[in-house]
Amino acid sequence: xxxxxxxRICLSIRSRTLLPRTVTTYPAIFQQALFQSTLTNNAxxxxxxxxxKIQIQRSENLKSLIPAKDLVFGRTFTDHxxxxxxxxxxGWSDPIIKPYGKISLEPSAMVFHYSxxxxxxxxxxxxKDGNIRLFRPDMNMKRFxxxxxxLTLPDFNGEELLECLKKLIRxxxxxxxxxxGYSLYIRPSLIGTQESLGVGVTTRALLFIICSPVxxxxxxxFDAVRLLATTDKVRAWPGGTGDAKIGGNYAPxxxxxxxAAKRGYHQNLWLFGTDDEITEVGTxxxxxxxxxxxxxxxxxxxxxxxxxxxxxxxxxxLSLARSWNEFKVSERKITMPEVVKAQEEGRLLEMFGAxxxxxxxxxxxxxxxxxxxxxxxxxxxxxxxxGPVTKRFADVIVGIQYGEIPHKWSxxxx
Length: 414
Ligand SMILES: *Cc1c(COP(=O)(O)O)cnc(C)c1O
Hints:
There is one protein chain. The protein is of the alpha+beta class. It has helices spanning 4-17, 31-41, 110-114, 137-150, 158-171, 251-262, 312-324, 336-344, 388-401; strands at residues 55-56, 80-87, 91-92, 96-99, 117-119, 122-126, 132-135, 183-192, 204-214, 225-230, 267-272, 277-281, 284-291, 297-301, 328-331, 348-355, 359-368, 371-374, 410-412. The longest helix has 14 residues, at 4-17. Mean pLDDT is 91; it is low at 1-24 and 35-41. The structure holds pyridoxal-5'-phosphate (PLP). Pyridoxal-5'-phosphate is lined by residues 121, 245, 280, 283-285, 309, 311-314, 355-356.
């Protein structure tokens, strides 16, 4: 927290330097750095991202495509990448699309020491008419800005960045597999690059986007997962950074993932608090469909209270469910004891994880306090590997993503 004295200083810095109102506004902690740079720069306008200024350096050695069936998630990269540099004196430089390749940074760059890194994940799809489509990319841009602000990394115009992203996808279009279920995974990332071991605001940053062709998450129908409920570690906590897509949140989760795998589970279920609130499944949002104590069918997902990552898939599922208006839809706290009780009383209907990679991931079992709790899939079809409502969400979302169901969420890249 800033003391009231330092708040006054910040305010007076802001008014004295007359920061232009039209440029991107920066978090309060930035004002000091901006003050210093504007002293030498005399209120020079900081440039924002401008897709009209994009420079394209085409690769002269195009790689050979990998057969779609051999793709492993996140291992193959396309021919090009996008880079945009930022510094506190000039703002954003001209975007450059160039051959995919190494980034050269000094070992003192802040990203290597203090995890000044945030990222996004979205996909481009090729529909049956050959159009390239994105799914709700505006949501990813908004979330990217929010994650950057949490780390005092520079803000930017999300619409302009999206236009740059579209140019990159167009250029690397041949990498989007045409087969339904396949897509191009797009990874924007923003890092602090200032050479400094001091913990503070970075005065230099690099935004880059790389792309990777990916196969369907489920090669042969759905695969329901078995989860280990984690009771000795937490992913996120009130006032923490669980609601930001920042690199620092993910490395610490791998140990938990390995522990679950060693005990024969596919994933771990993150709980929080003394009453074992359900938060997320691995790196997915979590949904529970149950008949509640009032005998109503209710779809429940934890609320965006700061410990939950606001998934685009989560939002899409909530929005579809509300539009169907067939059952109650709640963003509310739900605990493991509530799920156990519903299961014991035959009221638990379905559970699933949700995220861009898989869309939905049906859950068939949760190990919690020494026992394996079995989660229903489809009682009418014992051989099914997914619940019917879970499957319906996946079918509708995939239909929208591939342009088979017309919807404003699907954006064609012209
Ligand atoms: C990215 C992510 C999700 C899913 O978000 P989508 O936008 O649906 O892909 C959920 N939880 C965590 C922790 C994530 O990092």
